[in-house]
Design a protein that fits this description.
By secondary structure, the protein is of the alpha+beta class. The protein is built from 7 helices and 5 strands. Helix 1 packs antiparallel against helix 2, helix 3 packs across helix 4 and helix 6 packs parallel to helix 7.
């Protein structure tokens, strides 16, 4: 007689519908301004991203429900435009110009050095939430090529080594700030 090993049954705990509740007040304020306007989806997504720093999944689900749109349409618009982000940005948004002048002067090597140093790819954030890495088509600072922008600070005539050094400097500054906050 063959014996079958007992299968363990998975147990699931029903936690209710997370969207059964109304949207958070800050999201409701954004949605209320644009309710009934079929042409306002991009504006709504911009306002959500301005508020949260990115487009959280739950807020997109609420947006679809509250505006009476298919979730696929909300995601279709959000993924079509590269200005929208689906993950929280790092404390330091690192942007490397890949325009012609920057490319000719070595921006590709800077991108590779930063990817190696931060252990992330473009459009990703470090696990500690400190850095996000992006490339942009042009910064408009061609006379400073290659250009690196960290948050609102522009660094010109960069090299892979100077870009990595800047990341180290920011890490040290962040550690000092965190220590002061904890003290």
């Amino acid at each position: 007689m063959l014996r079958h090993p007992k299968k363990k049954h998975r147990q699931y705990l029903y936690q209710g519908d997370p969207l059964a509740a109304p949207p958070p007040p800050e999201l409701e304020t954004i949605l209320e301004r644009h309710r009934g306007r079929d042409d306002a989806l991009i504006t709504v997504l911009e306002e959500i991203q301005n508020h949260y720093g990115y487009l959280p999944q739950r807020q997109l689900q609420y947006t679809a429900r509250e505006l009476g749109l298919p979730l696929s349409r909300v995601y279709g618009v959000a993924t079509f435009y590269n200005l929208f982000h689906f993950t929280a940005p790092g404390r330091y948004m690192v942007r490397v110009c890949r325009g012609t002048a920057c490319h000719v002067n070595g921006s590709r090597q800077i991108i590779h050095a930063l990817k190696d140093k931060l252990a992330i790819n473009e459009d990703e954030s470090t696990p500690d939430g400190l850095f996000s890495l992006q490339t942009v088509a042009c910064m408009g600072a061609c006379s400073l090529a290659p250009v690196l922008v960290v948050n609102d600070n522009t660094y010109g005539r960069m090299s892979p080594e100077s870009a990595v050094d800047e990341m180290e400097k920011l890490k040290r500054e962040n550690a000092i700030l965190d220590a002061e906050v904890r003290a």
